[in-house]
Amino acid sequence: MEKKSAKYNTYTVVAVAIMTAMVFASNYIQIPIPTVIGTTRIHIANGICLLAALLLGGFKGGIAAGLGSFFFDLTFPEYVPLSWVTFLTKFTMALICGLIVYMGSKQKSDKPVSVWRRLVGTVVGALSYVAMFVAQQFFVKCLIEKQAVEAVAIATFTVKLPTSLLNAALAVPIAILLHSALRPALQKAKLSDKFGIK
């Protein structure tokens, strides 16, 4: 029996809100690293963003990933000016992941899509964020803030890019393992259909 698509109702709003809160809170599990062009961080939040996509699908997961990250940025003065960019990049990361994992899939209600499909979706989603993050660094730092291209390149490719790749490497197993643990538990509690869990 094919799984019915979740309606946009109170349960949908609650599911997105819960994942938004999880993304927000997970941003605080971090190791900040100061650089000459601003602070970078090792954190687990990208894994929770991808988890939102695995549980809710690309669009709803993207909303949760974007909003949770946006609200986190509002709590740090350094991040506030670009909080809207954070919303867009985190939304896009989760959207890409969800589209790859679920578009055209023959998912049954009693089991998730294959682990290989989830692996490809989370890897591509995580790497797409890395690419967007690097592009953002050059655009903002060089074109808007008028910092020297050499300084931005050095800080980006020696600190920010490796850190972003590490975050991506952490995000993939976090998302897949948590999805594998949470989905059966939600099914057992008879909550997966109500909340539109994939």
Structure overview:
With about 200 residues, this protein is mainly alpha-helical. The protein has a single domain (about 10-195), classed as Arp2/3 complex 21 kDa subunit ARPC3 (Orthogonal Bundle), CATH 1.10.1760.20. The chain is built from seven helices and two strands; from the N terminus they run αββαααααα. The protein has helices at about 10-25, 45-55, 60-75, 85-100, 115-145, 150-190, 190-195, and strands at about 30-35, 40-45. A two-stranded antiparallel sheet has the order 1-2. The protein is elongated.
Write out key terms for the chains shown.
198 residues; Arp2/3 complex 21 kDa subunit ARPC3; two-stranded antiparallel sheet; 6% strand; elongated; disordered N terminus
Low-confidence stretches: 1-6
Topology order in helix (H) and strand (E) letters: HEEHHHHHH
Number of strands: 2
**Globular, elongated, flat, extended or rod-shaped: what is the shape?**
elongated
Approximate helicity band: over 70%
CATH topology, by name, is Arp2/3 complex 21 kDa subunit ARPC3
Radius of gyration: 17 Å
Largest sheet composition: 2 strands, antiparallel
Q: Using the 3D structure, state the CATH architecture.
A: Orthogonal Bundle
How far from one another are the termini?
14 Å
Strand order of the largest sheet: 1-2
**Could you tell me the mean pLDDT?**
88
Strand content: 5-15%
State the name of the first-level CATH class.
Mainly Alpha
Class by helix and strand content? mainly alpha
Tally of separate helices: 7
Structural domain count:
1
